[in-house]
């Protein structure tokens, strides 16, 4: 039996199929190499469905913001939903005494209340506790530099995060000293003392 060969009208299909296959492989490789944040993925999902998931970072932010308002803690805790995750910024000037890494006793219940809102989501997300300082140098008997101070403060909050029920294996500690300044637009209109206070913060990042 004579084998049928493609006529001139069908030969382009072979080249077209090869092109589509190569493009598919190329886009799969791009997708596998891309780092798509949890926040971006949840935003896309919300836009497609028109609904906010009860366990999304946006819904967690709403829950925490409501608790902040109920307890009148706007000067103590702020939240920010970013591409890196949900950030809970703790005013270290209120949570800690100057140049100290021990949490002020009166702030223990407040801190526990904030961190407790994260426990129901502890199996779904990971947590990074970031310590930050202002740019003024420190050299005390306890801390030779802002690196030690920022890390010690972050570690103190890490202990409380685990104490309310978050698995230690899902938490990490990061100390940044004064190397990560806040954006200028967030500091507009503030005095120098207020700017320094804003930089002295401990951030619990949920991602």
Describe the structure.
The protein has helices spanning 12-33, 38-49, 57-70, 92-95, 108-116, 146-163, 184-187, 192-199, and strands at 77-82, 85-91, 127-131, 171-175, 201-206. It has 207 residues and is an alpha+beta fold. The protein folds into two domains: 10-49; 52-206, OmpA-like domain (60s Ribosomal Protein L30, Chain: A), CATH 3.30.1330. It has a five-stranded mixed beta sheet. β1 and β2 (85-91) form a beta hairpin. The protein is elongated, with a radius of gyration of 25 Å. The mean pLDDT is 86.
Rg from C-alpha positions? Answer: 25 Å
What is the number of helical segments per DSSP (H or I, 4+ residues)? 8
- Outline the low-pLDDT stretches: none
Q: For the largest sheet, list the strands in their spatial order.
A: 1-2-5-3-4
Distance between the first and last residues' Cα:
64 Å
Strand proportion, as a percent range, falls in 5-15%
| Fraction of residues in helix | 40-55%
Return the string of H and E elements: HHHEEHHEHEHHE
Beta-strand segment tally: 5
Spell out the blueprint of helices and strands:
Elements: H1 12-33, H2 38-49, H3 57-70, E1 77-82, E2 85-91, H4 92-95, H5 108-116, E3 127-131, H6 146-163, E4 171-175, H7 184-187, H8 192-199, E5 201-206
Parallel strand pairs: 3-4
Antiparallel strand pairs: 1-2, 2-5, 3-5
Give a concise summary:
This protein has helices spanning 12-33, 38-49, 57-70, 92-95, 108-116, 146-163, 184-187, 192-199; strands spanning 77-82, 85-91, 127-131, 171-175, 201-206.
Features:
alpha+beta, 60s Ribosomal Protein L30, Chain: A, five-stranded mixed beta sheet, about 210 residues, 5 strands
